[in-house]
Amino acid sequence: MSSINLSKRVPFLKWAKSYNRTTFVADSVAAMVITIMLIPQSLAYAMLAGLPPQLGLYASLLPLVAYALLGSSGPLSVGPFAITSIMTATALAATFPEALTSEYVAGAVILAFMTGAFLLAFGIFRLGFLTNFISFPVVTGFISASAIVIASSQVGNLLGISTNTSSFFEVITSTAQHIHQTHFETFLLGLCSIAFLYGAPKIIRALVLKLTSSYFIADSLSRTAPILAMLGAISVVLMFDLEHNGVVLLGDIPQGLPALALPNWQPINWDFKTWKSLASSALLISIIGFVSSLSAAQAFAAKQRQRINPNQEALSLGVANISAGLSGAFPVAASLSRSAVSFNAGAKTPATSAFTAIGMAVSCLFLTPYLYSLPVVTLAALILLAVLSLFDFNAMKRTWAFNRQDFSALFITMILTLLNGVEWGLVSGVMLSIGLHLYRSSHPHVAILGRVPATEHFRNIDRHDVMTDPEIVSFRVDASLYFANARFLEDRVNELVASHPKAKHLILMCSAINDIDASALESLYDINQHLKDAGMQLHLSEVKGPILDRIKRSDFLEEMTGNLYLSHYLAWKDLTNQPMAGSIADR
Amino acid sequence: MSSINLSKRVPFLKWAKSYNRTTFVADSVAAMVITIMLIPQSLAYAMLAGLPPQLGLYASLLPLVAYALLGSSGPLSVGPFAITSIMTATALAATFPEALTSEYVAGAVILAFMTGAFLLAFGIFRLGFLTNFISFPVVTGFISASAIVIASSQVGNLLGISTNTSSFFEVITSTAQHIHQTHFETFLLGLCSIAFLYGAPKIIRALVLKLTSSYFIADSLSRTAPILAMLGAISVVLMFDLEHNGVVLLGDIPQGLPALALPNWQPINWDFKTWKSLASSALLISIIGFVSSLSAAQAFAAKQRQRINPNQEALSLGVANISAGLSGAFPVAASLSRSAVSFNAGAKTPATSAFTAIGMAVSCLFLTPYLYSLPVVTLAALILLAVLSLFDFNAMKRTWAFNRQDFSALFITMILTLLNGVEWGLVSGVMLSIGLHLYRSSHPHVAILGRVPATEHFRNIDRHDVMTDPEIVSFRVDASLYFANARFLEDRVNELVASHPKAKHLILMCSAINDIDASALESLYDINQHLKDAGMQLHLSEVKGPILDRIKRSDFLEEMTGNLYLSHYLAWKDLTNQPMAGSIADR
């Protein structure tokens, strides 16, 4: 038993057994492709988080090893991720007054630890389901707003001007104020980088396909565009001595691997406000990181008829984040775009992550000196193109067409994220989603029914030509009954009683009732009493088994003036044939 | 049109037309019974609110006239109410440091105005439905806890000691500390009052029934017990000169009617905290007042096959509270117990309220001098017996048997109301109810179906002997699909795909799906894609009309790999007979 549990908690033990040469080759190739993608991305996302570039590299080492041991998705590419990086930047800017101070960097490390702790808690206490309360419109609105925030944060780098980046509108206004200081060479280099990053993958792919018929080779080589852009930009900088021309370069990056260490608490002044601010940011980062990583992992698992255990994923992401903290880096998550590339490159097991970590370690050891001359604007161009895909205009259009209320949740989440920052946007969006759900289900669809002539079917009298009887009101409610709609039901029944002065029976058709809570039961008692006072009987038809079991825990059926019928037709037949309550009822 | 609207807004204009001698006699008799009940109650509930006794009388004049003009329920008895009085006491104690100062009394008046304003807003903006979010367990827990708080607040009066009354536990501990100071004469008078108030109604009723056969006269005369208790207690005080013996008396009450005035803002130091504290208390008082008044009004209306318009009731209660403020009194609501007496005494129209107001005005003008010697302990006894009926032990037992989760909401509301006060209790209870609902509906009941041999019926394979086909997975979900359960559904389908390696078709039976939101639609897209990636087709069966209409607003049906079937049986027949997707599907 314990070994089964262990291999469930450490999936590595399971897949390592059947590891062979084929999977090794597949994983290694995928890891190579991902390493080439991850080098520029890790630097760019560290910059996005407002942190020194080497922290991006550090976030791409140990966390990947942790995921390889504990994670269960082969293609999932854990590491720096655009959304969690901008959330890190926002959290640090809100907590610490000055960027890149020692407390600022220490704060990022502690954020990674806290994020890891929350994710571990999700995994251990099986709280992963809580993320279900973040609805699709809220996620879409939030991610799209984040894309706008990320893009706007890079406009300054693109123009070669320094802007205030603590909130979206400050970025916009400070960019507008400084736009006349635009540094021409930087801007030109930026535009060239964008053009190259946009066009090169397609051109490379087309050229390679002329030489070989392998789509795999063509696709893989097209992924080298970002690293080619880096090499090209470094060459241009060196060739035209752009460093002394005022183009901002990445500068010195410490060579070698990070020293593992527990977080350094000293630089931070730990008052309650700091704690609260960092912890609430870490909670949101862990939720968003978990939601996006899980949906990516599930999508790839489905393609192989596998299943992902959400709690195990939370656990492995938790350990990955704690490893990031131990490495002195910032919060990590899975990047959907990198994971998709990894899947297409043939990644089979989480060993891909471990091999990628080896590639990144080699880069740390040998590549860093050559990164000195990498212009920051090229990384900004990389970020800009990467976030384009995050702004999900199609999902917005689809949601607008499908349901205006859901769209309003999307739109308000987006606007509040832009206006008040990520935390406000997300929390308001979730509350709005819940409010809309409650509002919608508090006004369920109800129908007065009549009999379709010569059949046993009963349909809405407003939509069909049906027979009715003045002494019988047939009523169907298309919703589970719970506190938010219990009084609505009571009210509608009171209305029916008032508008059908000759009625002696009300048959409530319960075929659409999937659940019933104590408030709804109380309303049924009230309805029964109100009908009794008005000289009418209450009957129930087509009650589902689990609902009947539940109602039987109370004495409602003994209190009820009428009968319980298996079908609405039986109720109708019984009550029209015999003025007195019949005996064929299933009571 | 405008006259119809006006009579809808001022129900008085409607019922006054058909007012005749019969209704006049019925209403007058009921008003007389209610006046006799209301005189002691109004004094007692003013004491409960921590305010001078005459304010209880003032709260029983103009607000009743306002309700007579705008309200639509004949028997509803608006005026001082135990629950809103204790809420007023709690609100004032939390906002102002010292009781019975001028700012304390001014605070009560402003609370009445604010409560009126909230209720008016409920009526005008049709927000009455918001009170539906207070579930039955929360109301029960809240009211029962309030009964305990009210009872404990009167223990000091009963023992003749002064206790701190700002929170339940302070009352308990301070009572325990001062219990040795118990004033013997006061306590004895209190016990006698309780015994009389408990026993006299039954004895009077039995005696009268020996003299006459009219239950109406017997019941009406038994309602005089409280006023007889008052007269008896006053006599005892005068006879034994208990005033100089240390028994606390009501003392001087100003004679005459209240002067109408706008609220006096001067005594209060209006900082933001004061505003927030009073406004949030007023909001809760208006919600609780509205919920209890409305449920009483609806119960009586149902007995006469009438219907109460909740928004109109909110409006009339709003104006009643503003009238209470204009009279210098505190928030009012309908008392369920008084309203029940009024109904039984034959009240037909809201004129009953107006006639009661006349009776109370006469009391203000001529009765007040005689109230000087009324001992406070008799009023305490009256309150204690009145709140006994509020502690709803039966509802607790019923909820416990019916559903433990609902009971936990009830229990936590009760405990938090006792521990942290009414606002905390109510707000936490509502949030807990919503959380429980979301949790419950995020794990809906699902079933894998098989065909009942030789029928067209499909049932849960775990409960019935049914036929299955290894190539077809039949799946039913018993819930409306929305964000909280959308990923649950995805996850279950992924599980099914992994556990049915031979399956080629998944038929989702949608007969229990009453609603679908954008998140659920997105999950359907994902499920369709996941199944496609796994080489399976997704089919839907028995989709309800409104759901189909909604899905058709998206391109899901074009994307879906399988077909749409009118019945699950048709799907099964089609997919088992023809390996390729058939053509009889209703697409």
TrEMBL record, chains A, B:
Its main location: membrane. It comes from the Bacteria. It is a multi-pass membrane protein. Keywords: Membrane, Transmembrane, Transmembrane helix. Residues 462-587 form the STAS domain. It is found in: Membrane. SUPFAM superfamilies: SpoIIaa-like (SSF52091). The chain crosses the membrane at residues 21-39, 51-70, 77-96, 102-122, 129-151, 187-208, 220-240, 278-302, 314-334, 370-391, 411-439. CDD domains: STAS_SulP_like_sulfate_transporter. Pfam families: STAS, Sulfate_transp. The keyword Transmembrane applies. NCBIfam families: sulP. This is Sulfate permease.
